[in-house]
Write a structure and sequence with these properties.
2 copies of one chain form a homodimer. By secondary structure, chain A is α/β, with parallel strands linked by helices. Helix content of chain A is about 15%, strand content about 30%. In chain A, β7, α5 and β8 form a beta-alpha-beta unit.
Chain lengths: ~210, ~210
Amino acid sequence: MRYDVTVPLRPGIPAYPGEAGPVLELLKARRRGDAADVGRLLLSLHTGTHVDAPTHFLDGGGGVETLPLDALVGPCLVLDVEAAPDVSAAALEARLGGAVPDRLLLRTRNSTGAPPLWAKESFDPGFAAIGHDAARWLADRRVRLVGIDYLSVEPFGAAEPLTHLALLGAGVVVVEGLDLRAVPPGLYQLTCLPALLPGADGAPARVLLETRAS
Amino acid sequence: MRYDVTVPLRPGIPAYPGEAGPVLELLKARRRGDAADVGRLLLSLHTGTHVDAPTHFLDGGGGVETLPLDALVGPCLVLDVEAAPDVSAAALEARLGGAVPDRLLLRTRNSTGAPPLWAKESFDPGFAAIGHDAARWLADRRVRLVGIDYLSVEPFGAAEPLTHLALLGAGVVVVEGLDLRAVPPGLYQLTCLPALLPGADGAPARVLLETRAS
C-alpha cells in the first residue's frame, strides 16, 4: 500500500503568513497558437509539503542540496501523538521511551481534529507544532528526519525559533506540510524527494509512504 | 548503490530555447534583519530534470497530478543506445528485441560523447532525441515510462511534435533532462517524483536509481 502524503500545490492553498500561494502561468499556450503548453511556476519555498534546509535559520548552513538522501529515504515511524497545544518532550517520551526511530513523522490533532486543518480553506494559526523541549529531545536522540502534519514545526508566534534551531542545528532533516490524514500510524518506507535547488533554504518535496513487506 | 540522476536547478543551467534558467530570490533574509531566510523560486516547468504531462501537447490531456505513481516508481532499464542522429526504432529493436521493459531510460551520445552535453555551459541543439519511428515503437509496446539524457525527447526542429504525440498519446510518462553520465547501463529501481502541480504541463522531478538486490 502506497500513500502520497504530499499537499497538491494549488493556487490558494493555505500558506504561512507572508507566503503567497503558488502561481502557475502559461508562457506558451496551444489556445494562443503555440505548438505546446509551457508553464512557469512562481513558488514560495515553504509552501505546501516541503523540506527546510539548514540555511533557513543557520548562518553558514547548507542549502537543500546538502540534505542527505540516506536521511530522506528509509524506514519511518508515523506516530499519533498528543499536542496540547504542541508536542512535548513528555508526550514523545511516553510514546517512544527509549525506542526512537531514525525517521519520525508526527501525526497530531492537525490531522485527527474535526475538521483537520488541511480541510480548511485558509491558514489556521492554531496548529500543533513541536515544542522547544520536544525538539531538543529529538535532537539529543539523533533522529535523522522529523516531519509534521502542518506548515511549521515551530510553535506559532514563538519569540525565538528554538525548535528550528535545535533540529537544524543538530543536522535533523525537517519536513513540513505533510498530509497525514489518511495514514494509519505505524512503520513505513519513507521516500521524501525535494526539488534539487542548490543553496535554497527550502524546497517543495514529493513524499511517499509505503507499507513494508514484513 | 544509489545514483541521483537529477540536474541541479542552478541559475544559468542549459535550458531549451525560450526557457529561462531558474531564479531564486530571498523574500526574507537574515542579513536584512529578518528572522529567517525565505526564498521564492521562478521556474519554467521544462527546465532541468522534469516530467512532461499529457496537457503539454494534448488538448484535454491531464496535468502532472495524473501521472501514475506506479509508472513513476519501479524496476527500470538504463540502456546504452546508438543515436545517429536520434534513437531509431531499428536501434531499439536491435538492443531490446522482444524484451521491452516497463520503464526505459535511454543513455545516448548526450551522456557518452566528448564532452557530454551536461558538461557544456549552454544549450546544445545537436542533442540526441527519440526519433518518431522509435517513439511509435515504444508506444506500440506499451512502455510505461521513457526517459532521455538531455532536454527533450523530440528531435530538435521537428516540423511536428510526433515523438511527444506518440508517447503522451499512448499514456507513456516522459522524463526529460536526466543526467545519466555516471550510471552504468543495467537494471535499477527507479524513483521519479515530480512536484505535485495539479494541471501543470510539466514539473521538476527528483530522480533516483538504485541498484537492485538481485
